[in-house]
Here is the input.
Amino acid sequence: MLSNQAGDGKRSSLHGHWSSRMAFVLAVTGSAVGLGNIWKFPYIAGQNGGGAFVLVYLACVVLIGMPVMMSEILIGRRGRRNPVRTMQILGEEEGGSRRWGWVGGMGVIAGIFILSYYSVIAGWTLAYIVKSVSGVFVGATAEVVGAEFENYVGDWRKVGLTHTIFMALSVYVVARGVERGLEQAVRFMVPALLVLMLVLLVYSINSGYFGQGVAFMFTPDFEKLTQDSVLAALGQAFFTLSIGMGAIMAYGAYLPEETSITGASAAVVAADTAIAILAGLAIFPLVFANGLTPADGPGLVFNTLPMAFGQMQGGVFLSTIFFVLLSFAAWTSAIGLMEPAVAWIVERFNKTRAQATVMIGLLIWLLGFGTVLSFNKLSETRFLAGTIFNNVDYLTSNIMLPLGGLLIVWFAGWVMCRNSTSDELGNTGKIFKVWHLAARFLAPVGILFVLLNAVGLIEWIRDRLA
Here is the structure.
């Protein structure tokens, strides 16, 4: 039974609490681990100096990513409401202005926009589970696999169907609430994701090319480590942790008072990074074993790997496991993206959780058809950054998320009083001092570089100075 009452006079969440620290860690890890972890981190590492990049990335995660995550969690737990209301309450209490609510609102909107296209891409993984089980990729050439992908994304009805199925699955979980929905889902899916990853890893170790995969990811090549590599590490460290979009703040609102924010954040960062590294160790030996060249994005996941699986003994089984793994990673991220908006509807309009989830789910589903059509009917319709999908992706990833993260860590470090933040972090010793320094200086500067680089100002300044 969930309790909404706090015995110490502090605010209590209207939606219940996580039953344990482990439930919270699994939920945030599930939200953070998504499609990008499976392919993006290993690929970027390999192309930017391998082990040298990994070292820079880990430094960025610890010095920038973790302080922002801790800030978002402590704000969420302090306010105990949806991100919009939390920022309004704390903005008024700590800084004398309710206008900070706009920061929470931007996170909620970013989550809706991101899920509108994320759901479409996640739907592709569902389609590829079916293709894998049916043996479509067995013995298939690059041309056959490529044609299979083009035929699928070129049919808006098929893409729309898988988008609909994925959104329905996400709505089902979120509608069931914190304990019966979110917590039960992540307790199953995150461990299952890890088990599936380990199955692939065992196969990769026995592929005969595991050493080549390890070398690709971890051999330090400092000649490849450029200024752009450092910026890429900063960006990856920020985006991989799902910060700046309200999900972590919403999950933090359900965190019990006795749970250490520092300990929970460290566990999430460690789990998220470990899964990204495991993904690379599992995937790239399979790519090299088949004489293929690593590619980024959808090219690796939906073209290169299906062809690799198709040439392996037991490829049907392995391919199915891989796409189920991707689906689980996408599903846990999706419920995190939806939660802030659902919590806002419940509190703002006094709707039941089921009603709020259906409302938000329908909105995201409708918006998602802009992305569905971006790969077929409207693929030639271009403006600003490109297709509808390109524009939504650019707006959220390059502007809304880093700006939201910057304002969140600024609020925690500069607007909230020291007593409030130290009270939530549970100590005033060295850990708090390190967080306070990072939240005030290191993280804002790092995120500002990410934001300026994303909008092209870093390159512009570099050209002017050249």
